[in-house]
Structures are given as C-alpha cells and as structure tokens.
Specification:
Layout lengths: L2 H17 L2 E2 L4 E2 L3 H14 L2 H106 L2
Antiparallel strand pairs: 1-2
Helix pairs in contact: 1-2
C-alpha cells in the first residue's frame, strides 16, 4: 500500500469516531472494538518501510544528540574544573608570593633590630670600659701624685 491509502485509512478511522453514538453528558462515544482493531491493523500494515526507518533514524538521532549533549556537558565540566584549578593555583601562587614578601620584610626588620641591639650593647660595653679605664687612670694619676709628693718630702 502507498501513502494515499494510509491517509484514506486515517480518514476512515476519523469517520468511525465521528459516526459513533455519543454517551450523553460524558463527551465519550461507543465504538465497535472489532471494527476499530481491524482498522488499526490495516493502518499498521500500510505504514511504509521508509516511515519505520525514519522512526529508527529519529530514535538514533535522539540517542546521538543525547550522547553529544552528555559529552559536551562533560567537556564543559572538565573545562570549568581546569579553570578553577588554574585559579586556585594562581591564588596559591599569589598567596605564596605575599607570604614570602612578609617573611622577607619581617627578617629585614628583625635583622635591623638585632644590629641596633648589637651596636647598643657594644656602645654600652665600650662606655663601661671607658669609665673603668678613666677611674683606673685617675687612680694611677693620684697614686703618682702621692708618690711624687712623698718623694719630694723625703728629699727635703
């Protein structure tokens, strides 16, 4: 059978429904089941092979599209994950550089403090030594004066 007979069969099905007696107040009709099933069998047998193949192609197309969509979603997810990884690595790198600068600044500040402390300590030690030497020189000078006075008193 060809496409025209399929259209004719569909029209017969429509006519069968339109001519069927209505059940009052329900919007339903009474159909002869045998007649309806016979018409459905005729329609089914008249569906060309191309339509069947087209349905198979349509199903395959839907499967391929769904598979492509899943693959695209996986690729997008992988790209997003990679971008997030790059951002995390970039942030880690930035934080590491910031921490390195902080450590270097802290080390330089600490080195300055140690240097100042060492210089202050050395100055204090030298000041104490100078005071001790000045006292010692004063004692030595006094001792020499006394010695000189004794020496001059004994020669008289």
């Amino acid at each position: 059978m060809n496409r025209i007979s399929l259209v004719v069969l569909l029209e017969q099905l429509e006519e069968l429904v339109e001519k069927a007696p209505e059940i009052p107040l329900t919007g339903r009709v009474l159909l002869d089941a045998d007649e309806l099933l016979d018409l459905i069998d005729q329609i089914r047998s008249s569906v060309p092979e191309e339509v069947r193949r087209a349905e198979a192609v349509s199903v395959e197309k839907d499967r391929v599209i769904a598979e492509g969509q899943q693959k695209a979603e996986r690729i997008v997810a992988q790209a997003e994950e990679y971008a997030a990884k790059l951002i995390r690595e970039s942030e880690i790198h930035r934080q590491a550089e910031q921490e390195a600068r902080r450590i270097l600044d802290e080390a330089a500040h600490r080195a300055e403090e140690i240097t100042r402390g060492a210089e202050d300590y050395a100055d204090q030690v030298l000041r104490n030594l100078q005071e001790a030497l000045e006292k010692t020189l004063s004692v030595v000078a006094k001792g020499r004066e006394e010695l000189a006075e004794r020496s001059s008193a004994s020669t008289r």
